Amino acid sequence: MANRTIFITGGASGIGRAVAERFGRAGWFVGIADIDEEGMAGTAALISAGFSSQHKLDVRERAAWDVALADCAEASGGRIDVVFNNAGIPLGGRITDCTPEEVGRTLDINLKGVIFGAQAAYPYLKASAPGSCLLNTASAAGIYGVPGASIYSATKFGVRSITESLDAEWRDDGILVRDLMPSFIETPLLDHAPNRASNEDIRGGVLAAGLEITPVSAVAEAAWAAVHGKKLHTLVGKTANRLAFAARWMPGALRKQVGRQGGALGE
């Protein structure tokens, strides 16, 4: 019998690497996909020899998805049980500060890439159902619109919507659809500037706002729980949990609070 297999985009670092290591530790075969070949090799080194494969993939290219998944299935012994739509990029700052190129790239990777991933994953997940899973990385920014991150928030609301839609659409096929909604996670993305016009990194804005940064290992455990559990949306981090609580029970107070914060996280 073929090994249980997970295919992970954005697998060269951060959340993707942590999830790859977590599933690999449990004996799963791990397909690592990214545009960063050196990073993929680093992730593969954390997994038992012979239990991973590497696939250079730009998630914006629909045909490339078919090639990568077919190669992963061949390497794993013929099946893929979980596809983790994780690849994504940050974009912060006032909406008027974001260039058309930045907006287009963020929409293409964070949203179109997830849609293409779902389309390409479907036949593999249907073949390994029941119990197969499409897992998407959404965000706490998909709970309530984040000032200073309007484009990023829009993509993550979109990922949340895709998860909810496909949860119903694929239910009769025995495919689970889940997402993770992390707040700020300790990954290399925090050290990037929110946009080309900014001279400060995201980490500085997070700390200045008094928000916590959650260890990436917490996301890996959340991914494991999401694939094996019943929750549609899995919140990760104190900020995500507080935001979800406020959005549900204190929407007026939340609106005032985010208004006072302005674009602190994106400038």
UniProtKB/TrEMBL annotation:
Keywords: Oxidoreductase. Pfam families: adh_short. It comes from the Bacteria. The keyword Nucleus does not apply. InterPro entries: NAD(P)-bd_dom_sf (IPR036291), SDR_fam (IPR002347). One of its GO terms (molecular function) is oxidoreductase activity. The keyword Membrane does not apply. Belongs to the short-chain dehydrogenases/reductases (SDR) family. PANTHER family: 5-KETO-D-GLUCONATE 5-REDUCTASE, ALCOHOL DEHYDROGENASE, PUTATIVE (AFU_ORTHOLOGUE AFUA_3G03445)-RELATED. This is Short-chain dehydrogenase. It comes from Novosphingobium sediminis.
